Amino acid sequence: xxxxxxGLVTWLHExxxxxxxxxxxxxxxxxxxxxxxxxxxxxxxxxxxRSVVPIAFWFFSLGGGGLLLVYAIQRRDPVFxxxxxxxxxxxxxxxxxxxxxxxAAMSKVD
Length: 110
Fold this sequence. Notes:
The protein has 110 residues and is mainly α.
């Protein structure tokens, strides 16, 4: 049991301490943005008592996805690059649709 625990401690030290650098910090910041989008969505839904996707969700998605793409490019991870790259198009498209919807609503008011 001691050897298993020691192996775990060694692994945790290698993963979270030895390789920690600015890129890992960027990855954690990006992951924070990604986590915040779900927190924002959850809070908005709880307040409305129905499922809601607020605009902040898409901005956190764009911020987190963009930073994770930079991180993935630096790490040369093709799976992560492809996934985050595609996600960015979806986030930008949703923000574009929201902007068009607001612009249309404003032109009806005038």
